[in-house]
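Record DUF6076 domain-containing protein, 368 aa.
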Amino acid sequence: MNQELMTLDFWQDTIIYEDKALPIGTLACDALNVSADTLAKMNEQCQKINLLLGMLNAGQDASALFPMAREAALTMLEILSKTPPFSYMDIPKHRERIEKVFTADSAQKYVEFATKAATNSLPFEEVPKYADAVMLQRYTAVFGHLAYSLREYQTAVLDFAEKSDSNEADRTAEGFAKMFGSYFPPEFSITEGNAWMSVANNSIQYVTTVRPGEDVAKLVKRMHYVSFVGMFRSDLFEGLCVGHAPKKCRICGKWFLTTNARHTKYCGGYAPGDKLHRTCRQIGNLKGREQRELADDHPLKQIYEKRLNTINRYVKRGTLDADLAEVMKKLAKDKMLRALSNVAYAKGDYEKEMEQAALKKEAKLRTK
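=>
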């Protein structure tokens, strides 16, 4: 029945999706980054698949549509293979299944299945022979509505994500709970214009399973969904419960998942347009360092300022020659600038060379 297509196993602060272990909230966060261009490409295929879905639901002969619908489903799968969070799917497995079930025979069997199910005339032992037919309907229903439902998900959840992004005071489970409570007050009802919060039509069971890369079975909460969007919503809220939340990168503008209380500003993806192929985090760290270096209270600058004050004080007292003092000041500034651009020097000889006696000795050597 292809349940794993939209099934999550929850355990502590992780999920298992199609044999991949991920931090809770990963799928929900990645879904926010699906671009408008990608949604448009998806929608082209959705329209073709919906033609087949409509005829299946109406019990009509859809054999003429199958070449187009199969090609649309495979094209959709190709788009999904390059688009997180869908790229976490086992793409080869789903491609094989689509090629198998997108046939006129499966469509005919689905009409038989739906008719018998509606009239309560389907013996339980006959259900397995309709497995391919039900899988066909599953793919057409999910793929046919995907672009629209994903766009609705983004529209509704982005406002909530923006508020969680601005929650700099406390990016913990408790902090998000407080923010969540202000966004959804106790009297909130999912029937009052905020149905996007609903994850209806999901089912829950508890099972033991061996997580990827482990040997010992764990007891997990397994949730089955009827749509990707319902799965993403659930992943978002479960993530908030353990302190995971979306954060917008200050460089590329994409959403990434934070899993601790640190106020991380940059994602680990490649920065757009950077010729050195650096990540946003690398560029962000460099910017942060530059800003720290420009600050008047930078530790390396403080050493320099302290030395200048000492030199000026000695000159004023008449215990240091003014010309020698100017050489010492020039040396001190050169060393400070070198330390700002050379981490090894800053952590090594800088402070020692900036001592009054060391500077004076070096200045005398320069004036000989």
